[in-house]
Each structure stands twice: as structure tokens, then as C-alpha cells.
User: Which sequence fits this backbone?
């Protein structure tokens, strides 16, 4: 592998991730061998199952602030020293002007949860509170079109434009605290590409935010290629975000949050493999994508089966050149495996605020990385340096 690909761990254990991730990843990966083609819908369904098994097994310019010298208090009211400056890559906001259809379409078992999430998503003051309190350096924000989409996952083009105008306004009001991504309906072909270019060139947003799938289409679909080409040409990252695939989401709904996130991780994994095996990385050398930690199953499969990849023998190099992954769920084993597979320079702090994780992440992320015995430079890179570099800041 050349240089060592760093080891990472992160945060206190979550209930849905008890046991040995490494053992489960190994067992799941063996069961997934045999999936060699992704060109047809039926084979993609097999891919979802294999990547889903792995996902279930998982279920620089940065400063070290001396907060005590500035009178900053941590969340327990005690002075903090030598705290990492953290940029949270994975943050959502949906202002009240946009109807949150995710709330109205939530299953009864999750309605109360989504009502609480909705209140937080709409609160601009809450969005910047952690920066004011000194427990977070900045947030990278997006307005997920999928959360305000109709039953078919579609949002009107004018609404997409309004979303990006709003994000640009938020960034201007909270300069240095918020960095914005432009939300794009990537499956809208050339029109989507025009809006992607407007979001970056005219509005000054730092990257693009897209759904990883739409119906039977994955992000490697021809309809999405114009948007990816814009990102590659302009040198901005694309956050390939999970969606709720059907019928898997409905099948997993009885199992609560873990079941729902399993479905989302499965489709995010499938999208990652589609980008590699569908030739997108090979054809767009400037493309950089970010997936969530829910896609760890797809990443493990892509690496473990790299010798059988359509992109072999360049598959591993393509992954490490084109892919970043966040620390969503902030679990020690997930961060460690991500770093070992991609390298420490490809892992970024990200919490899925306020949907999956709505509290300050500094202490948990720091504890996770320290438990992984990371060097100071490795911790700083994951905390903020990699994100700032990807966004072209500093």
C-alpha cells in the first residue's frame, strides 16, 4: 500500500454496533463474493443485499484552540484546553418556508422522532449555536431536497434554485461559521448541470449535494452525468447522500431507526460501487465524492473484491483518489476501518446533524480518535483539515 493507511477509532459505543466489526465485516464480505456485474437492475438488487450485509455489520489547515485562554466553557461548564477545532461536514437545515414532506410521510412509529427533528431543522439560531459556544469550528450545511420532495422524490426546479439561494444567504449571514453546498437534482440532466454551475460560480457555494439514487437509477446513471461533469471540471466535491430506497425501507421500517438507517446505508454503498464499477471515476479524473459512514459496507466490498473489479488493477487507486467518507455515527471501529481502507487524509468529521446526531461532537470524536491511538496530525486532519482542503479553504 505504500504509506501506512492510518488506524482510527471514535466515540463511545452505540447500542446498535455491539460486537466485533472486524469479524462481522470479514464474514459478510465472504458471503458477498460472486457479485461481479452491476449492469442490470436484477444484479444491482444482489449488490444491495451484499453491500447491505456489510453496512449492517457497521449499522490542512486546522488549529488547536486553547479555549480556556479565551474563557470558553465546555458543555459541562469546565474550561477546556487544547481542544481540536472541528468542522462538521454533515449538517442539514430546512427553513420553515419549505414543507418538510419527510415529516408528513414518516411512518407512525417514527412520527414523534421526526416532529422533534423538524423543529431543529428549522431553527437557524440552533444551527450556529455550537460555533457561538466555542464547541465547533464551523458547519458545512445543505438543504436536502429529498426531505421536501414529493412521493416520487421530485422537487420542482424553481424550488431547487430557491434552496440554493437560501443557503447562499445563510453563509453570508454567518460568514466563517457556515460553508454551503448546493442542492442539485442530479437526475434532471442538463438542467441540473446548469444549476450546479450557478450554485458554484454565481452563489459561491463550496460543493454539491445530491441524492445517491432515484428509483431504479444510481448516481452513475446517464441522467446524472452532466452534474458530475460540472463538479469534476470546477474541482468541487459532491456529497453523495443516502436516500430511503424502496421496497427495502418499507421492509425495514418495523425495526425502527436501525432498520431505516440500514436501508439508507445499503443504497449509499450501492452508489459508491456504481461509481467505481460504472467507470465514472475512470472517466472523470477531477471528481471527488463524499459518502457517509453508512456506506462502509460498500467501501469494504469494493476494496475486498478489488482484484475482481472492472477497474482492476487500478480500483484501489481510484477509490483513494476519488472518495472521502465522513464519521457519521462516530463509532471507533467505523472510523478505524474507513481510515485503513482509504487513508487518514480521506476521512472527515461529520455527524448528520440534527437528524442522527444533534449534540456537540468534539468530546466524542476526540475520544474516538484517541482510543485509536492516532497521532496529533491525524486527529487534526480528520477533525477539520481534510474538510478545509476539500473545500479549498485556507
Assistant:
Amino acid at each position: 500500500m505504500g504509506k501506512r493507511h492510518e488506524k482510527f477509532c471514535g466515540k463511545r459505543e452505540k447500542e446498535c454496533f455491539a460486537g466485533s466489526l472486524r469479524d462481522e465485516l470479514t464474514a459478510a464480505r465472504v458471503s458477498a463474493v460472486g457479485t461481479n456485474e452491476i449492469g442490470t437492475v436484477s444484479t444491482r438488487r444482489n449488490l444491495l443485499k451484499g453491500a447491505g450485509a456489510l453496512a449492517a455489520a457497521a449499522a490542512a489547515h486546522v488549529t488547536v484552540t486553547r479555549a480556556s485562554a479565551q474563557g470558553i466553557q465546555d458543555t459541562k461548564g469546565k474550561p477546556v484546553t487544547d481542544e481540536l477545532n472541528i468542522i462538521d461536514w454533515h449538517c442539514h437545515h430546512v427553513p420553515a418556508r419549505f414543507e418538510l414532506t419527510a415529516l408528513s410521510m414518516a411512518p407512525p412509529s417514527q412520527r414523534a422522532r421526526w416532529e422533534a427533528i423538524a423543529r431543529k431543522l428549522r431553527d437557524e439560531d440552533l444551527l450556529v449555536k455550537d460555533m457561538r459556544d466555542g464547541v465547533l469550528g464551523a458547519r458545512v450545511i445543505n438543504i436536502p431536497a429529498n426531505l421536501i420532495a414529493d412521493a416520487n422524490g421530485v422537487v420542482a426546479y424553481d424550488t431547487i434554485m430557491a434552496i440554493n439561494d437560501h443557503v447562499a444567504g445563510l453563509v453570508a449571514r454567518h460568514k466563517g461559521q457556515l460553508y454551503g453546498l448546493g442542492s442539485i437534482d442530479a437526475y434532471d440532466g442538463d438542467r441540473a448541470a446548469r444549476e450546479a454551475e450557478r450554485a458554484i460560480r454565481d452563489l459561491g457555494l463550496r460543493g454539491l449535494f445530491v441524492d445517491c439514487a432515484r428509483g431504479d437509477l444510481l448516481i452513475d446513471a446517464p441522467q446524472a452525468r452532466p452534474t458530475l461533469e460540472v463538479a469534476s471540471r470546477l474541482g468541487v466535491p459532491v456529497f453523495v447522500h443516502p436516500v430511503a430506497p424502496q421496497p427495502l425501507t418499507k421492509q425495514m421500517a418495523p425495526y425502527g431507526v436501525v432498520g431505516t438507517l440500514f436501508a439508507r446505508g445499503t443504497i449509499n454503498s450501492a452508489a459508491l460501487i456504481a461509481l467505481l464499477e460504472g467507470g465514472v471515476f475512470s472517466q472523470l479524473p477531477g471528481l471527488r465524492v463524499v459518502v457517509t459512514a453508512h456506506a462502509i459496507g460498500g467501501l469494504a466490498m469494493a476494496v475486498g473484491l478489488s482484484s475482481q473489479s472492472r477497474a482492476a488493477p487500478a480500483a484501489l487507486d481510484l477509490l483513494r483518489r476519488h472518495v472521502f467518507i465522513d464519521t457519521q455515527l462516530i463509532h471507533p471501529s467505523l472510523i478505524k476501518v474507513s481510515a485503513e481502507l482509504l487513508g487518514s487524509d480521506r476521512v472527515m468529521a461529520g455527524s448528520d446533524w440534527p437528524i442522527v446526531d444533534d449534540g456537540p461532537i468534539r468530546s466524542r470524536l476526540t475520544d474516538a480518535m484517541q482510543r485509536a491511538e492516532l497521532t496529533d496530525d491525524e486527529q487534526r486532519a480528520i477533525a477539520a483539515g481534510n474538510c478545509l482542503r476539500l473545500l479549498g479553504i485556507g
